[in-house]
Design goal:
Layout: E1 2-6, H1 12-21, E2 26-31, H2 35-42, E3 48-50, H3 53-58, E4 64-67, H4 74-83, E5 87-91, H5 98-111, E6 115-118, H6 125-135, E7 142-151, H7 165-168, H8 172-188, E8 192-200, E9 210-217, E10 222-229, E11 236-242, E12 246-250, E13 254-259, E14 262-268, H9 273-289, H10 298-317, E15 321-322
Parallel strand pairs: 1-2, 1-4, 2-3, 4-5, 5-6, 7-10
Antiparallel strand pairs: 7-11, 8-9, 8-15, 9-10, 11-12, 12-13, 13-14
Amino acid sequence: MRLGIVGAGAVASLHAQGAAVLEGLELTAVCDLREDAAAAVAGPWGAAVFTDYHAMLAAGVVDAVVINTPHSLHKDMVLAAAAHGVHVLVEKPMATTLTDCLLMEEACARANVVMVVGLIQHFMAEKLALQGALAAGKLGRVLMVHDYRSTDYRPGARPAWFFDKAVSGGGAFINIGAHCLDRSLWVGGAPAVQINATTLHRFGAPVETDGCMELTLANGVEVRITIVSDTPQHIDEMLIVCELGTVTVDPRKGTFMEIDGASTQLHATTDHDIQDAFTAQLADFSAAVGGAAPRVSGDHAKHVVELVLTAYESAERGAPVRLDAVCAVSGVRG
């Protein structure tokens, strides 16, 4: 499968490295508005360089693409790929509206191409270690999840498009919060039926820089997500409270389980965990193109977008919002 990458920033090099080591995949093109950025990712693998994704698709040099661009651009790029019969791995969030999510799905279905949403948490070794312990029944039922993550939303600390709501869809919630919602729903094991959110706008930023989300899942699990900008030390930790014990998960340290006063380390972080996750995600996408079910369903990806949008609604209203007729961990409202 000939793979292209649209958007040479952030994690593009991780996708490129993944393609290089997976049998049956070849990176053949990289596109970015900045030719030098595209060339930097394409160069080590001898891939073609484009500055217009329409030209790349029309050139017939790719069978599949990774879309790694600002959030609001995802819909048009997916529709263009589908029109050329090209399969798509689109980075999270799937889109900035549920309408766009549905248009993307419909276009891919009509074109008989596969679309998978890149929710990398499902491939991270420390999260897989947690899921292994839960599946083995060592901890009993999940009761509560606390997800605490820091970021940096000071203007100038990241590219300008992150602060343009028309392009990004919002601030810390739709960016970092999408990761937190994804993994908390996955661990909690059910869709959300209610969300109560608050946001902060600090540093003069036009989008939210910090916030909290409290969710009740359909199975009764309570989830609290806290996102804070510009903390003294970087934070990325989940605490899962279960019937028989607790687990902490941190990609910088690993996964630790405590049962009746006895501690066990389930995973120790390595330098290659992140690259391994992106390689595994790309392998999962390739398998999906071959007919396998992807590890992350499109319905789950849509539910993450739905929850981000509902969190914004809750924060604006200053009150909890119920989600009517939610889907199975995987779904959107009717």
